Amino acid sequence: MSLRQPDSRQRVVVAAAEMLARHGLNATSIREMVKRAQAPFGSTYHHFPGGKHQVISEAVVFAGERVQRQLENHLCEGVRQGLPAFLDFWREILLRSDFRQGCPVMAAVVEEPIDGEVLAALEAASQMFGQWRQILSASLRSHGHTAIDASQLATLIVASIEGAIVLCRAERSIAPFDHVARQLEFFVQTNRS
Q: What is the maximum span of the chain, computed from C-alpha positions, in angstroms?
């Protein structure tokens, strides 16, 4: 039995997510996405009539849902055990890529697009960040945090992880991530209302 290869449309979305994580929004071009996906260039606008903005938005959702699945899997055993495992997931990405890979969801919103079109990518990123926060908040509530504290702590966790990723890439060091991870783990373990 052979595993079915993803179709060219899906390969372009995956390539876009990988390019966002490594190179950012403005360096992610349709031509390079198609080349990396080994997809026919002519079919790109057939599959993506909205052009680059449609591909980027779909890549943000694709990458965001992949992270979301990791988060859900790690939180199955609860936030106290799951958060350290989720942090290890991001730590490994940073180390394995030699600090060249960041979060594609964040990459889609930290740069202003050259052509000014940004709404679809921002909406997709907002949706993904919101889902991550909801998952974290639900887990925190189930472990004794009030709804307000859980919501605020979930926002703190997402913002801290994203910020730590940026610091690590800038400094080419895992130290900022480890510092943030230690504090988040401590805060989650000790802070309950």
A: 57
Structure tokens at 122: 């921002």
Sign of the Cα torsion 116, 121, 122, 123 reads positive
pLDDT at 168: 97
pLDDT of residue 190: 74
The CA distances from residue 22 to 84, 124, 135, 152, in Å, are 24, 19, 26, 29
pTM strictly above 0.70: yes
Instruction: Show the beta-strand stretches assigned E in the chain.
Output: none
Domain encompassing residue 158: 8-190
Quick check: is 162 in a domain? yes
Per-residue pLDDT tens over the stretch 7-55? 888 999 999 999 999 998 888 888 889 899 988 887 788 888 888 889 9
Assigned token pair, 100: 């060249």
Provide, rounded to the nearest whole percent, the portion of the chain with pLDDT above 70.
Answer: 92
Q: What gap in Å lies between CA 114 and CA 155, rounded to an integer?
A: 29
Total domain count, the chain: 1
Task: Supply the DSSP string of 93-123, one letter for each residue.
Answer: HHHHTTT----HHHHHHHS--TTS--HHHHH
Domain of residue 119, CATH code:
1.10.357.10
Report the distance separating Cα 191 and Cα 193, nearest Å. Answer: 7
